[in-house]
Amino acid sequence: MARRLQEKTSMPPTDRSDGVPPSAQQTRRSIAFLNAAHGIDHYVLGIYPTVVIGLEAVYQRPYSELIVLSTAMFVAFGLFSLPAGWLADRISRRAMMAAFFIGCGVSLIGCAVAPTLTMLAVALFLLGMFAAIYHPVGMAMLIQVSNARGRTLAFNGVCGNLGVSLASGVTAVLAASAFGWRAAFVVPALVCLAVGIAYLALVDDDRHETAKRARVADIVLPRNAAIVFFGLYTIISFCGGLTFNTIVVALPKIVDERLVGDALGGAGLAAVGGLSSLVFLGGALAQLAVGRIAERVAPHLLFVGVVGLLLVGAIWSVRAEGMTLIAALAVVMAALYGQVTVGDMVIARYTADAWRGRVYAVRYFLSFASAGVAVPLIAFFHARGGFDLVLIGLAAVSGLFFAAVAGLVAVVMVATPRVVSAVDAAPAE
């Protein structure tokens, strides 16, 4: 019975609810496009924050005034994830991903040809709206076509991180070219349009599957347990996003301030950038490792372990100095990247495929919305106690994050007898 229970509780979602798997070639194509989409999604959001530096000279406006134009883009990025997930579940996930590619391409062209700053702000808003499609829709598709395979989800996460890493450097090169800052929008626009056309040509239509998607999760929790489970996940999503955005925004300055007096004799800008990149790279590598471990360990148990590691790293970083601080921050970043992959797997296990787009939409909406809270909190705490207070706040949020995940694991463990009963009642094979 123990073996059958393990098979029951570790069963990944089926590729298609009608039981007919897609061809291996079609699966590989879908995953490749989704990986590219994740990189593109984070890349396009990073274009304007780099381009704006050159716009100061073009428009003779201060940075503080120009950077505000991107606010609408980031608001739309969080807000429109909700309708994107709903539409994907009701209409077609493939159609929504095609809208992502084409919509981002057209919006980027709009940014490039915008004659005024007002029109540029409008184009950026549209870019945020179309960029919002990827996370709720793309993750639901990736879970479906990959059977929630840990290493596949982890590699997809690394592709997103690669988009973040390339955005500033590539944008700077394009903006410095003979074509000027508008080229920084035109070139990725052409890439988005080309990939979108290829996607429509090479990936099968899925409209016939929409009504056939499974409406029962792989592991069904009792009603009250499911309510508590998803209630806790709202806390998890917000705390995870707040922790992640806080460390991403504050990391370079933390390294700069807290490394003063180290053997390096104070960290210059190049050293700060290099050490920060090293921390981010460690997080990306950890994400791949967590993806492999998740294929051998129950996702909910791995989830609490990874977030526990986050809490340890956050507490450690409060008093760490010098290179010990780098080690502590590397632990924090590794856990933050790792929890994204395993958290998505937990949702997949307890959510029916037919509802998955909407559930991911809520998850990512809460995660992205926390970005609007992170920056003011950093400013508030830093003004009153420097990064000592910021890191104490980070540790406190990490503690709430861990408590919510521990509660989620308790809910799952308490609900296990129901799964056991169902397995015992099943006829022998």
Automatic annotation (TrEMBL):
It is a multi-pass membrane protein. It is found in: Cell membrane. Residues 27-418 form the Major facilitator superfamily (MFS) profile domain. GO terms for cellular component: plasma membrane. InterPro entries: MFS, MFS_dom, MFS_trans_sf, MFS_Transporters. GO terms for molecular function: transmembrane transporter activity. Pfam families: MFS_1. The chain crosses the membrane at residues 66-88, 95-115, 121-143, 155-179, 185-203, 224-251, 263-285, 297-318, 324-348, 360-383, 389-415. Gene3D superfamilies: MFS general substrate transporter like domains. The keyword Transmembrane applies. Residues 1-23 are annotated as: Disordered. PANTHER family: MULTIDRUG RESISTANCE PROTEIN MDTH, RESISTANCE PROTEIN MDTM, PUTATIVE-RELATED-RELATED. This is Major facilitator superfamily (MFS) profile domain-containing protein.
